[in-house]
Amino acid sequence: MQIYLPIAEVSVNAFLLLGLGGMVGILSGMFGVGGGFLMTPLLFFIGIPPAVAVATEANQIVASSFSGVLAHFRRKTVDLKMGTVLLVGGLMGAALGVVVFNYLKSLGQVDLLVTLCYVVFLGVVGGLMFIESLRALRKAKKGGGAPAKRRQRGWIHALPFKMRFRTSGLYISVIPPVLVGLCVGVLAAIMGVGGGFIMVPAMIYLLGMPTKVVVGTSLFQIIFVTGFTTMLHATTNYTVDVVLAVLLLVGGVVGAQIGTVIGAKMPAEQLRVLLAALVLVVCGKLALDLLIEPSELYSLGSEGGH
Amino acid sequence: MLKRLIALLVFCCTPALAEDEQVVLGLSQDRVAITATFDGSEILIFGAVKRESPIPPGPPLEVIVTVAGPSSPVMVRRKERKLGIWVNTDSVLVDLAPSFYAVATSGPLDSILLDTEDLRYRVSIERAIRSVGAAMHIRGAQDFANAVVRIREDEGLYSIRENTVAVDEQTLFRTSIEMPADLTEGDYAARIFLTRGKEIISEFETTIDVRKVGLERFLYNMSRQQPVWYGLMSLVIAIAAGWGASTAFRLLREN
Known about the structure:
Chain A has 10 helices and 5 strands.
């Protein structure tokens, strides 16, 4: 069944969108990531204009994160205080990101920026995660004890403006979480992702938060940052397509719940290797697009910034 | 009333053509409604040639039908390899290019229309695009205009279909123009040219109204006129869906 998207002004198959939403939803439920980093490139691929894809994906992430965070609230694994500090940085970052996005759009370099961001971040995060999880797998096979907790005690603890985060059991400066939030906010606005795949490792390794509160807290922060991004895109670029968002999120939220069930039945280390491999595949595909001569050298855009 | 006005306008505007033969036109529909399930449309364009005198001898009557969507400037960018990766470098602004352009003819275009007439009436696809302001310092500025045509032809937005206008007895003609699903809204101009011996002897123009309707219209207007409410509505829908799914599955699992 074809459906005409009022803002994107293209006609696409509704079941294709539901299917995409469902597939990405299953993956996001399995791995505990938002799935934006997979969905946005897929939307480019089926012909949704990049600006609409990025803005609408932000809206869809609100839905999937909200669905996820409720489960974490019930388990009391959300550090509201830390989430709020991250959020302050996140909102500033999102505003900055939209400004950068609009500026580059006027230069005609927004596609390049988005793709480069994807390649760099997916490559780094995927690579690190792959090495880490392989190491963990090997350790698990040898039957060694629990992996040593890494807590940086260096410069991060020397910074001023210290604050106590009871749920996380931390007493650290607010500067690193604000900066982490800022970076993730910029990425959310530019890449149309929640940024969980960056924030989760940053919270564990950089801030030293306990793993059990990390996912819930990042989801809490992501809801507000992507919500804010949606509003910014809706009011400055008019690129949020609510029909597209609804189709994606219906598939997405159902898929996420199924994925959570599947994920709970698989061992954590193997899940991490799989996720890392997935991230690297997406990264490789995007990198190839930059390196191989495109079949069409020309592209059409509208005049100026809009 | 409106028809009479248009007829009058056509009559006033084209005194240059000695119109012994005039078009009487019919359209299967003069408006295209873009609904949520819009999947393209086919418009039947048919008509007759009205003349006071017998059919003139000489080359037969040929008919050209064009349908053009609203025109807007298009920024065309070219990729080049820089530092090993392909990035957009040069760009040219094509002043005006229609969002949709279809030409249907009763014979091969170059054998029923003079190049000078094409230039004057902007009939062929290449002529329908205007790029006078193309920067001359960029190598191959014409390539950019050609790229617009090539890309939009690939997307099915521009098309030329020769020999698709059927002409009976040099009097009746009909053709159908297919419009793809990815239409932008606006006034689409349909023009009908009658040619004889490669010269245009009569021109007729009418508009086809392409509009979003119903939910599409409502959402589009809202996103432009009340962007704040539109954004909030999108968020509320997203949160409701997320909450709904999570609750539904929890209930399912508990039972």
